[in-house]
Specification:
The protein has 287 residues and is of the alpha+beta class. The protein has 9 helices and 11 strands. 32% of the residues lie in helices and 25% in strands. The strands form 3 sheets. The protein has a 5-stranded antiparallel beta sheet with strand order 7-11-10-9-8. The protein has a 4-stranded antiparallel beta sheet with strand order 1-2-6-5. A two-stranded antiparallel ribbon has the order 3-4. Strand 5 and strand 6 form a beta hairpin. Helix 3 packs parallel to helix 5. The protein is globular. The protein starts with 12 loop residues before the first helix and ends in a 10-residue tail after the last strand.
């Protein structure tokens, strides 16, 4: 053989195990800090995955080789078509793939905890309905699964919940950089800003309030729709829980109502979680 060249890829131990046995290994990690602030987290799973959790350049280097490998390991044929169709910066495609990995591992963890089913990740399809809401499809699901995904700056999180307990679940993620005055004036009305200013200092309450709105909008199945004041912060507690209500116009247009969102700061990130029990709504979640 002429011109032979050896190339060594440096894998971390978790990634090496993942390549060898994907049914018994996860790339993502449980995020108990988010669920731990809820008094009852039964039937819910939250997980997180960041580029920094993987070997340096694993998904962005080597000509995209390992990104393609991971896509073929985790995604179904239809999902791979969606992944290939992603446009824009390479970062967007990578974060989309991270989101699918953490979402599927969250769904599989939920199924393993609540039933005897533990499918291969490629057998779990996460597709979008006409409104852009993620739906989970697989053969033999013992119950419907509600799902919400968020990704930002190289990190992805997912929240999966039993569909027979929750009509919708929502999760949002933002970096913990303080919100600018210009953004705050668009996101919040005068009463909301007064509410935020009355909370203890140094907890980035504006960004947490934004995440709370996002999470509640997702849990009710309609998101923010580009108009954050459609949802309004009604109250907040020192432990980071917000009560969020729809504006009068939104309540007239949609069958939505009041919900709570638990927020938190964690290692440079702000996150929020919200769930809507079945007795309050019949809408799925949004991504």
């Amino acid at each position: 053989l002429d011109g032979w060249e050896d190339r060594r890829f440096h894998f971390s131990e978790p990634v090496a195990r993942y390549m060898l046995d994907r049914r018994a290994t996860d790339l993502s990690q449980p995020w108990p800090a988010l669920l731990g602030q809820r008094s009852n987290a039964a039937g819910l799973v939250a997980r997180s995955l960041a580029l920094s959790d993987l070997p340096e350049g694993f998904l962005t280097g080597h000509g995209g080789h390992w990104q393609r490998v991971l896509a073929h390991i985790v995604l179904s044929e239809r999902e791979r078509a969606q992944w290939r169709a992603q446009r824009g910066p390479e970062r967007r495609r990578v974060e989309w793939l991270l989101g699918r990995v953490v979402a599927k591992e969250s769904v599989r963890a939920l199924l393993a905890a609540e039933s005897a089913l533990s499918p291969a990740l490629a057998d779990l399809e996460i597709l979008s309905d006409g409104a852009g809401r993620p739906t989970v499809e697989a053969k033999g699901l013992p119950f419907a699964v509600r799902l919400s995904i968020a990704h930002r700056s190289g990190r992805a999180v997912a929240l999966a919940g039993r569909g027979d307990r929750y009509a919708g679940v929502g999760v949002d993620l933002e970096s913990s950089e303080p919100m600018t005055e210009a953004t705050s004036s668009v996101a919040f009305g005068p009463q909301e800003r007064a509410l935020i200013e009355g909370l203890p200092a140094d907890s980035n309450w504006a960004m947490r309030g934004w995440c709370a709105k996002e999470a509640v909008g997702k849990a009710w199945g309609i998101g923010l729709g580009g108009a954050p004041r459609r949802w309004q912060l009604a109250s907040a507690s020192d432990d980071g829980q917000f009560a969020v209500i729809p504006s009068a116009a939104l309540a007239t247009e949609q069958a939505v109502g009041r919900a709570t969102a638990q927020t938190m700061q964690n290692h440079g990130w702000v996150a929020a979680l919200s769930v809507v029990p079945h007795r309050e709504a019949a809408q799925p979640t949004t991504e």
